[in-house]
TrEMBL record:
Highest rank taxon of the organism: Eukaryota
Species per Swiss-Prot/TrEMBL record: Araneus ventricosus (Orbweaver spider)
Name the UniProt record assigns to this protein: Retrovirus-related Pol polyprotein from transposon TNT 1-94
Biased composition (Basic and acidic residues): 65-83
Pfam families (alphabetical): Retrotran_gag_2
Region feature (Disordered): 63-83
Amino acid sequence: MSENGNMNEHIAQMLELIDKLKAVGEEIKDDHIAALLLVSVPKSYDTLKTALEAMPENELTPELIKNKLTDENNRRKEQDSDRNLAQAFRTNVSFKRSHQNKNDKFCTFCEKTWSFKGFLLSIRPLSHYTV
């Protein structure tokens, strides 16, 4: 499987190959199926593989391996999506800042942009004060 491949498709292909082997009379035990699934994923899954290999052999079923691999793949996709969203937000903010006139400041009080050109930025225009 490639690093960016679809985990569900990969698992389905692996199980299809195993079914074909069983159809020609090859006997494959569940622990061998679990091992085949683990060795077929990319190196970036090594942490998950190590954690699963540390489990007792009687608990290590192909169904558990499939679920854990799918969960990890979904977590990575979600993390990538969040990372892309954060990058898009940073790019948007950076674009706004780079295209903003350095003398113009946005006032959160009156929600207008004021051009100060040398005046003290801490002084509000007279229109901000009520009598």
